[in-house]
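4.2 Preliminary Data

To establish feasibility before requesting continued support, the project team ran the inverse folding procedure on a target of 261 residues. The structure was first converted into the token representation described in Section 3, and no sequence information of any kind was made available to the design step. The complete token record follows.
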């Protein structure tokens, strides 16, 4: 089933140059090159001793937010909020490919907002974003990340006194239906699907890949994933290196045939 892997970057570049609705589906490994730790790498959050021995799943759960808001926000702010992080070559490469008509959408499990910062326009954030926040009062007052002060650790709405929570899907919470439907639609219409920087261990997000009907499925991840055997192209290398090179070859190679359509 695996395509010609003697030059996987060429294969991927060829696929994208002829694609009409390519989609990128990514995870935390997309942002490690921006200095944001993922969950499951050796240097990831799951290896770090935080949360007083409690699991990251609990510390980032709806139950923790409700029962122990101080602990929740300490953990959340320390580990998932990175206001100074900059987009890396995966983010900028995908934005370039979209602008040139080679990519229809980015679907991300990330909550860091870096795809938008890089200039991507069609981005489906399955797990929400740290950039958006709203208070739990009746009016649901909205706050951007830059409007949330560092203290108190549990942010309080200056308008109504309620807790301000991030628009992030916590463990124990449902994904946004419209975002899931739009993601399924994009995957269903895709003629190339690139999956990058994700362990594919988190459901229901990983389950969306079953909606891909096509034969050009590329998987780019440092380590093996449960879907390696089903992919047409498997690349165990840094995703920023691969996407950056593909974008350079397709858009900056000097070959007019390879440039934007
Ligand atoms: P994960 O389970 O931590 O898996 C990340 C995968 O990426 C691992 O298999 C790594 O081997 C791989 N990886 C790490 N760096 C690279 C790289 N440079 N190139 C290629 N592969 C790499 O993370 P998933 O996204 O699969 O799990 C989903 C969780 C993680 C979602 O709920 C996210 O919200 C959550 N998360 C998001 C962020 C973020 O927004 N940047 C950070 C940490 C966790």
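Position-by-position output of the design step:
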């Amino acid at each position: 089933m695996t395509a010609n892997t003697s030059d996987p970057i060429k294969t991927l570049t060829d696929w994208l140059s002829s694609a009409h609705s390519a989609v990128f589906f990514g995870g935390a490994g997309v942002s490690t090159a921006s200095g944001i730790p993922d969950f499951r790498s050796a240097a990831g959050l799951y290896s770090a001793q935080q949360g007083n021995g409690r699991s990251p799943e609990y510390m980032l759960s709806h139950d923790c937010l409700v029962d122990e808001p101080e602990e929740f926000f300490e953990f959340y702010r320390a580990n998932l909020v990175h206001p100074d992080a900059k987009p890396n070559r995966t983010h900028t490469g995908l934005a370039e490919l979209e602008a040139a008509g080679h990519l229809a959408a980015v679907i991300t499990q990330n909550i860091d907002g870096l795809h938008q910062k890089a200039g991507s326009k069609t981005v489906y954030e399955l797990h929400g974003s740290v950039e958006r926040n709203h208070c739990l009062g009746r009016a649901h007052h909205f706050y951007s990340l830059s409007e949330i002060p560092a203290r108190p650790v549990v942010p309080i709405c200056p308008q109504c006194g309620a807790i301000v929570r991030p628009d992030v899907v916590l463990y124990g919470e449902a994904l946004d239906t419209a975002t899931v439907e739009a993601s399924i639609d994009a995957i269903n219409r895709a003629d190339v699907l690139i999956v990058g920087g994700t362990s594919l261990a988190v459901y229901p997000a990983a389950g969306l890949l079953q909606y891909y009907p096509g034969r050009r499925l590329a998987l780019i991840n440092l380590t093996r994933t449960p879907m390696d055997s089903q992919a047409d192209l498997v690349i165990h290398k840094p995703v920023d290196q691969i996407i950056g090179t593909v974008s350079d070859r397709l858009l900056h190679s000097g070959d007019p045939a390879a440039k934007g359509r």
